Each structure stands twice: as structure tokens, then as C-alpha cells.
Amino acid sequence: MAQSIPDADPGRIAARLAELGVSLPEAAKPIANYVPAVITGDLLFVSGQVPMREGKIAYTGKLGAGVPIEMGQEAAQLCFINVLAQAFAALGSLDRVVRVVRLGGFIAAGPEFTQHAQVMNGASDMAVAVFDDAGRHARTTIGVPSLPGDAAVEVEAVFEIA
Fold first, then answer.
1. What is the pLDDT of residue 31?
2. 65-114 pLDDT, tens digit each
3. Residues 144, 108 contacting (CB under 8 angstroms)
4. What is the mean pLDDT of residues 135-160?
5. Containing structural domain, residue 66
6. Staple 150 to which of 22, 60, 67, 77, CB 3.0 to 4.6 Å?
7. Residue 56 in domain
8. In the chain, how many domains are there?
9. Residue 141 counted as domain residue
10. 7 pLDDT exceeds 50?
11. Residue 117 maps to which CATH number?
């Protein structure tokens, strides 16, 4: 179920998401002992999000072992959309985001895979598409042997907020 964004004044970021054809999903509930987002000072930390769609992980497996780079990029993009859903749930409006400070990407991959950065560009490109220059961010991308639910990608974020 998509989260509704008020029609009267959808806000700048909600309007941008609509232009991009992106509808925010309902923010996923935690599957373990953590909270999905924490605000401290002027920072919002969003816990890692997997490529969930309609309650199921949409992209599973390992890059370089059956999952092509293009699918990994789509997974990373979907992860960032799920990060935005968590941010929206925590803030009430994505217009409170001043900038995307940092993204962290975890790419499930075989030992020979070396194109982690290209996969993570799916999330980074979406951050810039949504927030323009305020979407340009620092980033860490690492390969891991597995992720929860056999997800292909997981993305976490730090936002500066007003």
C-alpha cells in the first residue's frame, strides 16, 4: 500500500517523485531488534533497506553469479525508494531533507565480482534524480557473501534534515 502524500500541498520532493513516476511504498517494519530510523540533532539515519516490493524481496541472489549488473542497479534503486519511505515515515515530509549526506551499499556478490560501484549507482542516481545537487553524497559500497532474505542489495542512508 502506497503512503498517501496530501494533495493540497504535495511538497517539492513529492512532486519530483510524481514526475519520476515513483510512488512510495508503505515503510517496512523491522525484522529484528532495531528501529527503521533514528533522528539525532539535524541528522536522520535510516537502517538498511532491501529491495522489497509488495512485502516480498524483488531481487534475490548474487551479482556475478546469476544476477546481472542491470538487475543489481534496479535493486539498488528500489532499496533507495524504500529508504525514502522510511524517511517519509520518520519526518512526515521529504521536504525536510536538506541533503543526502551518505549512502552505504551492501552488494551480495561472488568472490570474483568487482563492479560493486556500478551496482550502487542505481541508488546514487536515484538520490540525485530526487534531490538534485542536494542528492550528491558520500558513499561506501562493499561486497558481502549474503544479505537477509537472500536480497541482492541493501542500502542505508544518512540525511541532513531541517
1. 86
2. 999 999 999 999 999 999 999 999 999 999 999 999 999 999 999 999 99
3. yes
4. 98
5. 12-161
6. 60
7. yes
8. 1
9. yes
10. no
11. 3.30.1330.40
